[in-house]
Amino acid sequence: MNNESREETARRYAIKITLAKMLEGSMIVVVKNEDEAYVAEAHGARAIIPIELTNLQNASKNSNRLTEADLSHIHDIMDFVTIPIIARVRVGHTSRAKAFEGGKVNFLYEYEDISKISENYIFKHPFKIPFITEAKSLSYALKRINEGSSLIINKSSNEDSDNVGSTFNTVRAIFKEIETLHEADDVYARTIAVSAEVPEELVKMVARKGKLPVPFFASGGIFTPIDVSLFMKLGCDGVIISNCVFNVINPETHIKKISQALNNYNDPNKLMDLMTGIGPPIKPS
C-alpha cells in the first residue's frame, strides 16, 4: 500500500463498489450448512453468509454473538453454490481477514461482537475484495466508507439485533439523517465532516446524491415478504435474511416469496398474495 498511488487505490475501490452494487435489489441469506446454502441460491439469494452450526444452540437469545464460520466450513459450502460467499470477521481482526481473502471468499463482513478484537476497524483499501460493515448512524456509515467499505448495513443495539422493529428504527433514522444533509447547506456538510472525521468531499457527495455512495442493506430479524417490502420502500438497496427463515414449515416456498417481494414491494395486491399460504411462521418445537 505504501508504494501504491492514490489513483491505483481509487481504481481498486471503484471496482469493489461495482461488485457490491451487483447485489442491489437482492437478498443475502444467512446459512448454517450446505443444504441451506443450496436452497437459498435455488430460490433467489444473490449471496450467502455462512455461520457455524455449533454457535446456533442459543440463537434465539444470542444470535448477535455468533462467531464467524471457519474457512473449512466456508469451503464446504462453496462446493454447493455458485453465488458469492460472504465471510464474517470481527472488528479489527486483520489477520483473519487476510486469511479469508487468501481463501478466495468473495466478500468480507466486518461485524461488531461482544468478543471483538479491537476498537479500531480494519483499514480496507489494501484488500482486493469488498468489505461490508455496520453503521448505526450516518456518521458511522461515513467513517466506514472512508475506511474502504463497499456496502453498509444497519447496526442495531446488541440486545435488539434480531428485532425487526429495532432494525426499522435504525434504518429510518439513517435515511432521515441523509435527507437532512441533502437539504442543508455546505456549512452543515462541513460540520458533519469534522464531527465524523472524514473528508468533506465525501459528505458533500452524499449531500448531492441524497444517498450513500455505496449500497445500503437492512439487516436484523428480517424473514418475511412484508418485512422485505417495508425496507425496500424505505429506500434500502437490499436485505439480509435471518437464518430463522429455515425454521418455517416450508423454507423453500418462503424464500421464494421473499425473492418475489423484492421485485414487487410496491404492488399491494402481489404482496397480499405473497403473505397468504405461508403457514405457521415457526416449526413447532
TrEMBL record:
> Per its UniProt record, what Pfam families does this chain match?
SOR_SNZ
Q: Where is the PdxS/SNZ N-terminal domain?
A: 14-218
Q: Which residues cross the membrane?
A: none
Question: Which keywords belong to this entry?
Answer: Lyase, Pyridoxal phosphate, Schiff base
Q: Which SUPFAM superfamilies match?
A: Ribulose-phoshate binding barrel
- Which pathway does the protein contribute to? Cofactor biosynthesis; pyridoxal 5'-phosphate biosynthesis
What InterPro entries does this protein map onto?
A: Aldolase_TIM, PdxS/SNZ, PdxS/SNZ_N, RibuloseP-bd_barrel
The terms under GO molecular function for this entry are: pyridoxal 5'-phosphate synthase (glutamine hydrolysing) activity
Asked if the Swiss-Prot or TrEMBL record annotates the protein with the keyword Translocase, the reply is no
**EC number(s) of the enzyme?**
4.3.3.6
Q: Does the keyword Lyase apply?
A: yes
The reaction(s) this protein catalyses: aldehydo-D-ribose 5-phosphate + D-glyceraldehyde 3-phosphate + L-glutamine = pyridoxal 5'-phosphate + L-glutamate + phosphate + 3 H2O + H(+)
What does the entry give for GO biological process?
A: amino acid metabolic process; pyridoxal phosphate biosynthetic process; pyridoxine biosynthetic process
PANTHER family according to UniProt: PYRIDOXAL 5'-PHOSPHATE SYNTHASE SUBUNIT SNZ1-RELATED
As for family, the record states: Belongs to the PdxS/SNZ family.
Official protein name in the record: pyridoxal 5'-phosphate synthase (glutamine hydrolyzing)
Question: What is the organism field in this record?
Answer: Coemansia reversa (strain ATCC 12441 / NRRL 1564)
